[in-house]
Write a structure and sequence with these properties.
37% of the residues lie in helices and 13% in strands. With 279 residues, the protein is α/β, with parallel strands linked by helices. α2 (46-54) links the parallel β2 and β3. It is globular.
Length: 279
């Protein structure tokens, strides 16, 4: 009997690899270490960077073109994968973008054009890519798995502006995809990551303050410099261990979503019975 933990021999598509600090890069590396074949996507000027950091993975993967602003590009990606690999076992969607004037206080006056483009890249593309690849995911042993990356969007995060709205929309889209694709054996889930120092995070003016809040108050602790803290949740959702889990948001944030930080003494500074606290 094959172990539910085993991912060996499977094929996964990973989008959004911009450098070797990104969550997507670390997921790709972890999948390869588990014996999977990984396919990356990129587009335009960024593709040169993606191909460069692909060389830093345990095995250099193929990098295919994907422009989520183009319906034809998405369709071509699906056709290319079908002709060369035949099927997919899972997908990590890690694509998001927003114009600078749509972040922070720019939320109030951001022009519609940029806001709508950001929605297409950050939210609609999840539905677009998933439905295009659904025929390739149907044949996966144990069912196909699609995982997207989000943040804790249950509250308004200072500095996130329209990106916070895009992430809220992403959660709704994931639930509807779970509803419509579940009968085909495809599960759709999200991982809500704590603040990690990535290229996109640097565009959020309040990132340092938010990360400090997590590092002070998350019950399990947090480290903004460690993308690997999120990888386990993604691998769980891509594996057969989650074959009865869909439409969920799994928080990989040290437990911060469950507590109200900022009042009293951080839990890390509270001594356990019989111990002296070290801060």
């Amino acid at each position: 009997m094959t172990s539910l933990l085993s991912l060996a021999g499977r094929t996964y598509l990973v989008t959004g690899v911009l450098n070797n600090e990104s969550i997507a890069w670390h997921v790709a590396a972890a999948l390869q270490r588990e014996g999977c074949e990984v396919i990356l996507t990129s587009f335009g000027r960024v593709a040169r960077i993606t191909r460069k950091v692909a060389d830093l993975l345990p095995t250099r993967p193929e990098v295919l073109d994907l422009d989520v602003m183009s319906d034809q590009s998405v369709a071509s990606l699906a056709a290319d994968i079908e002709s060369r690999w035949g099927r997919l076992d899972g997908v990590l969607h890690s694509i998001a973008a927003a114009p600078p004037d749509a972040l922070g206080p720019g939320f109030v006056g951001a022009p519609a054009g940029g806001v709508l483009d950001g929605f297409r890249v950050s939210s609609y593309s999840f539905q677009q890519v998933t439905t295009a690849l659904a025929p390739l995911l149907r044949g996966a042993p144990g069912g196909g798995a699609v995982v997207g990356l989000t943040v804790d969007s249950t509250r308004a995060l200072p500095g996130y502006g329209w990106m916070g709205v895009y992430k809220s929309a992403l959660e709704a889209i994931s639930r509807y995809l779970a509803l419509h694709l579940g009968p085909a054996g495809i599960r759709v889930n999200l991982v809500a990551a704590g603040p990690v120092e990535t290229v996109s995070a640097r565009g959020v003016g309040t990132f340092s303050e938010l990360a400090e809040q997590y590092e002070r108050w998350a019950p399990l602790g947090w480290d903004r410099t460690d993308p690997a803290r999120v990888v386990g949740a993604v691998l769980f959702l891509l594996s057969d261990l989650s074959r009865q889990t869909t439409g969920q948001v799994v928080h990989a944030d040290g437990g911060m979503h469950a507590v109200f930080g900022g009042v009293g003494v951080p839990p890390a500074a509270t001594p356990s019975p019989g111990r002296t606290a070290t801060v």
